[in-house]
Structures are given as structure tokens and as C-alpha cells.
Amino acid sequence: MRNLFFWITIYALALASSQLLLKYGLYQIGAFNIKSIKDLLAILAVIIKNPYIIFGTLIMASTYFLWITILSWFKLSLAFPLTSIAFIFVAILSYFILNEKLLPHNYLGIAIITIGIFFLLYKQ
Questions:
Q1: Separation between Cα atoms, residue 19 and residue 93, nearest integer Å
Q2: Tens digit of pLDDT for each residue in 19-60?
């Protein structure tokens, strides 16, 4: 039997990991200052050379294929809301890996998402 929560967790962890890799790569590049096509092309040249951005993009692309597989197995009305677990993973991983601060409203949001996931999975 396919376990929805298992596959959504794998999907959400991969998605969160891709976001962290992209952000880490962007920390190395810095903020974009695009005023012309030439600036845009220069930024694109830097982006395609950054291994964190490349790997993050590849992971993000792979999550698409995992997602369509999940959708082939489970109801969208159940699977899609469960992807909110990715927000929890991003917040926690950003705190530990990127040293981003979590504020009280972040903790409240995580608690609300967790409660929502519990209700969605209850008696499934």
C-alpha cells in the first residue's frame, strides 16, 4: 500500500532542500541589480556557474516528477494541502542551516500547519 504521508514528506523535504540550496547559492552571488538586458545576461552567466543553484534547480525539477506520481496515486484534495509540511521544513532548515531567526508568529504558523496536517490524516 502506498503511504501518502511518507511520499508527501519525501516530496516536501526535497522541495525544502532545493529552496535552501537556491538561497545558499544566492548568498554567494548577492542581490540582483538589473537595469538592462546586459545586467540580466551577466547575472544569468553567474547563476549557471553556481553549483548550489544548479543542484537546487535539479532537485526542484525532480520534485515535479515525484509530485505527478503522487497525484496519480492519491486525491488532489488530500495530497495538495499536505504539501504545507514543506513550509515547516523550510522554516526549521533555514533556522539551523542559514541561521535565519524564527519569530513567535513563525512558531504559531508551524503549530497551525501541524494541527491541520493531523486533521487531514486523521482516520486516513
A1: 10
A2: 999 999 999 988 888 888 888 898 889 899 999 999 999 999
Give the single-character DSSP code of 95: H
Q: What is the pTM of this model?
A: 0.84
Contact assessment for residue 76 and residue 61, using Cβ atoms and an 8 Å cutoff = no
Give the single-character DSSP code of 122. T
Between CA 86 and CA 100 the distance in angstroms is: 16
Distance CA(60)–CA(16), nearest Å, equals 9
Q: How far apart are CA 43 and CA 117, in angstroms?
A: 39
Task: Match 548550489 to its residue by C-alpha cell.
Answer: 52
